[in-house]
Amino acid sequence: MSVLDFSDLKSTGHIIKYNNEPYQIIWSNFMRTAQRKPVIQAKLRNLMTGKVMEYSFKYGEKIEGADVTKRKCQYLYSDDEGAHFMDPESFETIVVPKIIVEDQIKFLKEGSDTTIMFFEDRPIALDLPIKIDLKVMETTPGVKGDTATGGSKPATLETGYVVNVPLFIKEGDVVRVNTQSGDYVERASN
Questions:
Q1: Which residues form the domain of 90?
Q2: In what order do the strands lie in the sheet with 52-58?
Q3: What is the pLDDT of residue 54?
Q4: Domain boundary among 47, 65, 83
Q5: What is the CATH classification number for the domain harbouring 61?
Q6: What is a GO molecular function of this protein (predicted)?
Q7: 86 pLDDT band (50/70/90 cuts)?
Q8: Model-level pTM greater than 0.85?
Q9: Angle CA(116)–CA(118)–CA(121) in degrees, nearest 5?
C-alpha cells in the first residue's frame, strides 16, 4: 500500500484507491483561502465503472494509491461478453468485460498489442495510445476539385468504426484517429 502526498493530487493521471475501488484523477484545482487549510478539488473517474465524481481532498487527509499493474496483451476478438486478449507470456486468455471496453473496441485490430490495466488481478481498463493508425476500408471516392479544407465524408475503418474524414481521403489510405474523442486527426504517412 502506498500513501500519496497531498501535493501529488495536484497533477492529473494519478490513480488512487477510494472506497476500495480505483479512481483516476482527471481534473484538479488547488484552493487556499485565508485562515483555512488548503483543499484540492478533483474530478475522479472510477476505472471499473467509468462514472465520474467530484471530491474535495483536505490537507492532511490520507490518500491511498491504488495498486494498479499494466500488462501488454494481444487483442484476439470481442463478443457479447467483452474483449478477449491473450497474455503472450502465459498464453492465458483474459476477458475484459464489455462495459469497460465498449468505447474502445472500435480502435482495436485483431492481433494488435494492447496494454491492460489490472487492479487486484482484475482487468479494469485498456491503456490505449492517444492516437492510433487505422486503414480506410470503404469510403466514397473524392470528386475532382475537392479541397483539403472543404467538407468531410464518412469512412469505414478496418475495425468497422465509421469516422468522418476530409474529402481527399480514399480507400486504402491509413488515417490517424484520436482514441479519446474518436475523431479523425490526419492522414498517416505510409
A1: 68-127
A2: 2-4, 63-65, 15-18, 21-31, 39-46, 52-58
A3: 93
A4: 65
A5: 2.30.30.30
A6: translation elongation factor activity
A7: very high
A8: no
A9: 130
